[in-house]
Amino acid sequence: MKILGIGNAIVDVICKVSDSFLAENSLAKSTMKLVDEKEFKKLLKNLKIEKTISGGSVANSIVGLSQLGNKVGFIGKVNDDDLGRKYLEGLEKEKVKYHYSIKSEKIATGTCLILITPDSERTMCTFLGTAGNINENDIDEKIVKESQITFLEGYLWDKGDPQKAFNKAISNSSQSAMSLSDLFCVERHKNYFLDLVQNKLDITFANEQEVYALIGAKTFEDVVAFARNIKKLVVITRGENGAVAIQNDQIMECSAKKNLKIKDLTGAGDLFAAGFLHGYVNNLSLKESLEKGTELSSKIIQQVGARLQ
Questions:
Q1: CATH number, domain at 241?
Q2: What is the pTM of this model?
Q3: Boundaries of domain holding 295
Q4: What stretches in the chain show pLDDT beneath 70?
């Protein structure tokens, strides 16, 4: 297997809202907020659902890699309920091997409410459900060892059982990669994430906002200096300024595509990572890998949802 993804197994519920809806519910645009099941249902009560689809950040990347013809797998925790079974079906349909045995859990399958405002930005309210209870027993070290790269998400990291699952995955990986996921995650787990990026991961994906917060950078030159110093592969998306890959003394840039008909920014980072990792595991150059990532992220933001149709 080329890449094994380990992440939150979340079912995405996509709705279109006004900016006033975010203000009325004290939601900060373009961020992810963790909510309990009661708050989730309250938010959803008066909304029209546009689409329901199997999601989760790394799972979206893994599906993108599968669509590009790579042999991939995924580990993520769901309950043996209606949404959990739909989640499994969604992965199987995309030819992703699901390395998790569904069983009855005390908590429901996780759900993410994705709120799309008229400017195409997405604001997420996530009820982690049983996805947040992943533990080291859910990680099959044999499967991890047989994969070229293990790809993890910052959303999944939390103290206790998820941290143990993370550490087991990384310690058994040939190469490990992680997305920092969200500014909220970086601010919540800054010291732990910094340790992961500096000492344990081989590849880190981040957007500019996340990496600035992680290292306390004031300029992009600070980011470049940090990446060079740790001698790991750091890949940064910069919105309209394109993307950059830094590895030792090699700094490669790729411009953003112009004149796109943007509908929904959900999944832009997930599909960028998919495209880049596709290039990386298939021995393309850093420049070609950046270009593939940019191509996929440009496609996904011109449709609604985080899975390429």
A1: 3.40.1190.20
A2: 0.90
A3: 3-300
A4: none
